[in-house]
Amino acid sequence: MLSCLMGTTAGDVTIVKAGTSAQQKETIFQGNGFTIKYIIESQWNNGYIANVVITNTGEEVIENWELSYSSTDEYTNIWNARVSYHAATIYNIKNAGHNQNIKPGESVSFGFQAAFTDKINVPDSYKILGDRLVVNDKECKICFEIQNQWNTGCIMNTTIYNNSDMNIENWSMEFNSDLSIDNIWRAEIVKHEGSRYFLKNCGYNSVIKPKESETFGMQISFAEGTDVSVPTDVVTYQYQKDKWYMDFDKDWNRSMIKADDERVQAALKKNQNTIKIGLIDSGVDFSSNIQVVESENFVDEYDDKNPIFEDVSGHGTAVAGILASDATKNEAVFEFDNKYLNQLSKEKIKGVNPYVQIYSAEVLDDSNETTVNRLAEGIEWAIQKDVDILNISCGFPKDSDKLHNVIKKAYNKGILIIAAAGNGGSVQYPAKYDEVMAVGSVKCNAQLSENSAKGKEIEVVAPGDDVTAYGPFGIITNQSGTSMAAPQVTALAALLWQQDKTKSAAFIRQLIDATAHPLGEKEYFGYGLIDCVYALEQYDSYKEKYSETGAVESIAKMADNEGSLLLTDEKEVTAFWRNEEHTKTSKRMSVVRYGANWPDDKNSKVKGMVDHPKFHGYYKSDYVKAYRIMTQVASKMYTKGKFITPKNADASTKSLVKNIKKAAKAGFKRYKYTTKEDKSRFIYGMSLHTVADVFAHSTTGIKGKSAQGKKKKSVKKLCKQWKRLKHGPRNPKTGKFYKSKNFADMPECIPKRFNQGAMSVCGAVINESVIKHKAGTKNVFKNIKYHSSVKKAMKIKTKRKKKEYLVKSYGIIRLSKYLNASKGKLKKTADNVSSEKVKKVVNAWK
To answer: Which of 411, 551, 586, 590 has the smallest number of CB atoms closer than 10 Å to its CB?
Structure first.
């Protein structure tokens, strides 16, 4: 069975050149179990005819194929297939019925006629969509009916009624029957094992339209006197793209501002990681896709946060992803059993400019609110870090001298300040100040977003409605608002500055303004929609016209940007994000996320690993038992709607349940959770916090920011450095841990404990607890990944290999004892993450 077959990356594509034309006549894409040959048959002016050949190179039949890829060309005709979906650059091409299945070693083809603008846009990657799906009772009804019967046999008809509003495609069925099927029509018997029969359609009757039915007949034989019974344990399948598949252009915002253009991509490579961005927001969760150089928390309610839950509201992570996510880096992902969640987690956002340095100032709380003092402190901190650009995604309706003074300080230091204009009403401060670029928001069809602020201060606009962003636990979701538009302007500014760092902030600002695409009234759209390509094209010309007047009103106007806009149908973009399944999933995951952050909030009454070790995975408590109790309480809340203490609970357990109840009730009040389902998910989130904190508070390793620079040291010296990772001393002035000494919360210190350890176990907890609604078990730790086994480490002979193992490994204190693992895979897992076993290895090396 093939399921959403992915191809190789563009770098692995085999290109076969034919002819001497500047446009390649033939390209071959090597996928996983398939190849795609794309052939340009003929070309004229701005049109061409192409043929696409799909070859099955795998060992299983590719059933009911549907091909997905990206192209900016417009198809005007197609044969041997049909366009099943098209939005912006995304094309889904589906089989024509007669060629729906491709056997191993065989090929099918389709052709089309298309129009192009500058040159033919040949796709660089493809996906084959399709999955074997169970058709549930609500979608179809199965009816068995005996048409004719005699002493030793009968004719039985089976009718499949499609009760859904979508086609049932490439259907198949399996069931149990003790009777013998001697003949069958309008279906085929694929396999027969004991009493289990496996059937499939005949091809010509593979599709059952909504509210219609398909009937096949069977001739059955049996011993005389047998009571005839209909088949049991019936399961009906279909093979097609699943409903959860996101076949819409998730990168429509990048297309709209032309961020994917090859000229932009080439320019991004120049002076990489030289521009420093001060991200003034709610923080950024730990991720391999978003690189944060340094962060500082200014929200008093939270302190000592786990890096995985760094961003208390999720707003800052969404903004950072749109700005600078590198979709090619996937070392750290949450693994979910749920197919839909897994898809949302595996999909990664392409940031407009991933080659920047982010300095994150956490000023927004879990409600995305801040104070003037916090905002000013965050900006002041970013100034001290010598950032080049400030990206501010918050504001106030009233002016403030304190805020304006720190803005003027940044401006006078040559920092480019970009701020979201605000959602609704007039432009807010600091976006309203002359020193700041105020960014408005537009929809995918270039119309002004309904909630985008309006006023003469609006300078430019960028996509801001239903923009694809990172949500809870790394799943992609949609976010709207001028906050999502601002980072795209920041990314463009960084790109332009990368071309020549000697240019001033005023030059970069005015170049963006002068090259924006006009959309209408200035108080709505400012100078217009930012355009990455046009800004680069006009860079040199603008240098000739630019003068250091400093006044935005006196910008040297270029010829109006008359380039075409690549727009998307709003219905296409909103259709997925508004569907019931996604809406429910996002809400549920958000509740869990708030629960996971709650123990670090001072209002939870359980903040602090020393005072409340069971809520923070601290090795001086029985943290595995604490996790289990929390999930048991959460599970009972889900079924009973109230707090229930486990049977035969000892005094310690009763005390823990009492504290869980106290903390959870405070959280319910804070977030206004009233249903038993939301309350349960919130408590599950608290248990998630406990197991994630194990990797910060109960882990041993080599003390230091990273393994780099330690390889030259002797094994003996390395062994002496093997210690529990601690938070280190606090700054007496601020009361906060010194960043350079806080090894427990430092992602750079043994990063595998976060990106392979904590994230894996968190995914396991969500699978066991949130998705399946079960109390936690020992099996939740089965997904913990580690560098290599202790058994293997004991056999290492060379000092270099020993040092590599010692540097890259980490141990979780007392885990094997808490898990009470005596045999099997659980013992092996526990042994390999237990500090006691690691210490034996270390002692053997002395």
So the answer is: 551
